Amino acid sequence: MDILQLFVLPIIGIGVATLGTLVGLGGGFILVPILLIIFPEATASTISSVSLTMVFLNATSATIGNYRAKVIDFKTAGLLAIGAVPAAALGAIMSMQVSRSTFDLSMGIMLILGSIYVVWRGYRATGPEDGSDRNPNRHITERMGRTYRFYVSTITTASLSPVSGFISSFFGIGGGVINVPAMTFILHMPTRVIAPTAMLLLVLTSSSSLLTRIFTGQFEEGLAPAALLGLGALIGAQIGIYLSPRVNQKLILIFLAISMTLVGARQVALGI
Strands (DSSP E) along the chain, which ranges? Predict the structure, then answer.
């Protein structure tokens, strides 16, 4: 690692974590393409391991802030974790089996699909604001005083998470791009509760994946970059929480979608 990376990586960590927290996607979708460009010779497992470290620290920092705001649905996060945590461990193991070219191609496709979702989310993906279910089994009152009452199906929730856990771990992107729309359109959770709950789930799944990667020796090459990016992520997450009610998220999502499409096209071209 050269001197330039020593100073640049923490700045990247701050920027990625800030943006990832603002849009509720954890930041992995933003960081992995950057890492693919900065470290062209790194293996797929190294790239995803480094990204997951930053995602874990970003999600942990954001979860602390969300806990203070009292907007996390702990019951739903726990139900989702039942399938997502073991699936994340499996994703970490499978990432060792793919070549860099296959990873580039797969990641490029994921980025393009993700960019479509990001645009859609900016204009359509909104859940109920206060929860109007007739038979609510969730009751959350945030620190600002607003109360959310809503119903979440236990069976549906437990069955949703394995796919997001595997994908988030395999690619090192975090599961927000799957968990957030699932919580919105399938579980019908209030908008204010979705991102904080998804962040807590991300803490659990990324922990499972990171422990698996440590025990299987996938961290030997990426420890220093992961530490520098993670340092920035701890700061960036708090910046994102502060800026969240003060910025135009639609503009951010459009910019993010354009960037993801361009980088995704590049990765597909490299992988073909």
Answer: 138-141, 147-150
